[in-house]
Amino acid sequence: MDSQWSTEFGAMASQYWTPERTLELTGGKALLVTPEQSAPLLRAIGILHRDASMPPPQRRKFFQLNHMLRLIRPPLEELMVSGEPLHLVDAGCGRSYLTLALAWCLKHIFDHPFSLLGIDRNPKLMDDCTRRAELADLGGELRFAAADLTEVDLAAIWAATFESPLALDGVVALHACDTATDDAIALGLRHSASLIAVAPCCQAELARGWAQLAADGTEGPFAPIWTTPHLRRALAETVTDTFRTLLLEAAGYETRAVEFVRSEHTPKNTLIRAMQRTGPDETALRRYHELRTSTGGVGIKLARDFEGG
């Protein structure tokens, strides 16, 4: 039934999205996901209406999704060179817009075999994500499980879900809140994932630590930052993500932090993209410790997981 709906809706969308309408929407840009080719996906995640139209409020989300896919595409293509099926996890997947889009692209655009598991702690939300995956005819390759990232036995869940052993290729996390981004990165590190791509959100842990330094009357060169709430929050986001890039480099990953959504759309616009390349990098670890010391000595959860304490 879902496969039939997907086919019928796709046919309706291909008639609605004439070349003229598509050109007006895209401005001639080459996008991975377009309404005339990916209508079931865009309907499943709420970007298209039931008549296949795309209302103006949804157009921003449409372009954000495509930009995010464009940034993740190069490391995915690198992983696909081997021809082996990809094993991917979306850690803290939430409503799973990225999860569904990745699955759609792998199946219909890249034509590459894969298994993709979305994990979030809310069972009802995971049931809803499962329904939308089935609606888009992705239920075979894309599955969801309710679990806490800090406690998850990923190998056991993977084996129970896909009836095969886990050999993890990549971990992605879109706007996992505060330390949940650290948990997603740590999950990738524990399983030696070749690709780790996270878009952090609400980096509050470091700001809380700095606020405590201010409350304790601690002196230091960053004290003017610690005692000014707005500046403390703003700088803590940047320093937190710098800590994360250094720790990933220390673990042997080639790491870049890039803007994945333009800042006029949202302040939550950093994508940390890391590919495993080498062995441990002691220089990067030293630089992390130096930066942590110079900013007040407050670290982040990822460092405690990384260093085992």
What would your notes on this structure say?
The longest helix is centred in the first third of the chain and has 25 residues. The radius of gyration is 21 Å and the shape is globular. The chain has a seven-stranded mixed sheet with strand order 3-2-1-4-5-7-6, with helices on both faces. It contains 13 helices and seven strands.
User: On the 0-100 scale, what is the average pLDDT?
Assistant: 92
Which of globular, elongated, flat, extended, rod-shaped describes the shape?
globular
The proportion of residues forming helix, as a percent range, comes to 40-55%
Assembly type of the shown chains? single chain
**% residues in beta strands:** 15-25%
Structural class estimated from helices and strands: alpha/beta
Q: What's the total number of strands? A: 7
Rg, nearest Å:
21 Å
Topology order in helix (H) and strand (E) letters:
HHHHEHEHEHEHEHHHEEHH
Which ranges are low-confidence, i.e. pLDDT below 50, for 5 or more consecutive residues? Answer: none
Q: Strand sequence of the main sheet, in spatial order?
A: 3-2-1-4-5-7-6
Largest sheet: 7 strands, mixed
Distance between the termini: 51 Å
By DSSP (H or I, 4+ residues per run), the number of helices equals 13
